[in-house]
């Protein structure tokens, strides 16, 4: 079992602590939080060992799980990597691209592994259809959330939209060509609602909308590709897969057949991929343990996290154009 320590015991940090404590692949050594009063309160309430010194905790573990505010990601990861510790970083990977690129260099320099917590990669609805998504040419995403003061210190792009940016980058086999975006601040000092149109070099276009001031929650993505339409509901963990194939010469009574202007006939049919229930956060943490133990590439690498951050920052930068 890998010895693990958690940095940060906020809302998400406590979830990580609970799951790591339950995992058969980790031994939870303890946690550190900059707020000692809060740290001791969490220790008393849940029984996890609180370390009042970050360096002492890093020395005692094999893996450091960083669930602190984004501003401190780089400093925490740097401390851990310099001690030869593997690091799991919540998204976004860091505040700046320069910091992210430095972590990629340090990962190689110190011979450690890093993974970024883009948890939607492990959503059972997405994993059920990911292998069916081939060269999509139009993508539309909506990630809407009811207002929550937590997280409003950063733009909605880094808070919410970056989930969809990462998922899209994982299935589009092309580099980004151009980005146009707009954002509006309604309650916060940073944009609360944003829309981005991302064009890829291969012709694919992705239209993303994110809001944290909605009346209801929604996390849906739609992928359109040659002869197929795939819809993923990340919130309800449901999928729709609609495909087309050449129609048979003698269609059945209940076959759905379309004919275009050129006379070509296509049959519409539905696929129902199995959606396996899981805990996505536990899965991402345990696949990282597997990558360390088996010396394989993590599911979401530091390079993946950096690509998502780069596009997210480009979206934010285009607000002022």
TrEMBL record:
Residue ranges annotated for the GFO/IDH/MocA-like oxidoreductase domain, each copy included: 156-216
Coiled-coil regions listed in the entry: none
One GO MF term: nucleotide binding
Superkingdom, natural source: Bacteria
Pfam family, one: GFO_IDH_MocA
Domain Gfo/Idh/MocA-like oxidoreductase N-terminal: 2-118
The protein's name: Gfo/Idh/MocA family oxidoreductase
Organism taxonomic ancestry: Bacteria, Pseudomonadati, Bacteroidota, Flavobacteriia, Flavobacteriales
């Amino acid at each position: 079992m890998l010895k693990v320590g958690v940095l940060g015991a906020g809302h998400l940090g406590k979830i990580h602590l609970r799951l790591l404590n339950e995992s058969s692949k980790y031994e939870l050594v303890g946690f550190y939080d900059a707020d000692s009063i809060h740290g001791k309160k969490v220790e008393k309430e849940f029984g996890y060992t609180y370390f009042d010194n970050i360096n002492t905790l890093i020395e005692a573990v094999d893996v450091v799980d960083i669930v602190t505010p984004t501003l401190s990601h780089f400093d925490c990861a740097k401390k851990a990597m310099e001690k030869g510790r593997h690091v799991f970083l919540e998204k976004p990977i860091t505040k700046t691209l320069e910091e992210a690129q430095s972590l990629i260099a340090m990962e190689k320099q110190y011979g450690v592994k890093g993974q970024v917590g883009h948890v939607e990669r492990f959503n059972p609805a997405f994993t059920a259809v990911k292998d069916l998504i081939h060269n999509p040419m139009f993508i539309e995403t909506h990630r809407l959330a009811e207002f929550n003061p937590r997280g409003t210190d950063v733009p909605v792009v880094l808070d919410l939209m970056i989930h969809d940016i990462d998922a899209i980058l994982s299935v589009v086999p092309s580099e980004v060509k151009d980005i146009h975006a707009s954002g509006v601040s309604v309650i916060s000092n940073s944009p609360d609602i944003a829309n981005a149109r991302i064009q890829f070099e291969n012709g694919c276009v992705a239209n993303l909308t994110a809001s944290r001031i909605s009346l209801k929650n929604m996390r849906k993505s739609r992928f359109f590709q040659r002869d197929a339409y795939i819809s993923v509901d990340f919130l309800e963990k449901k999928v729709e897969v609609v495909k087309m194939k050449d129609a048979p010469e003698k269609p059945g009574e209940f076959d759905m057949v379309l004919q275009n202007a050129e006379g070509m006939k296509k049959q519409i049919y539905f696929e129902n991929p199995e959606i396996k229930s899981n805990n996505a956060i536990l899965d991402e943490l345990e696949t990282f343990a597997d990558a360390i133990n088996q010396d394989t590439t993590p599911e979401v690498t530091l390079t993946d996290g950096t690509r998502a951050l780069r596009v997210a920052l480009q979206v934010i930068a285009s607000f002022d154009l």
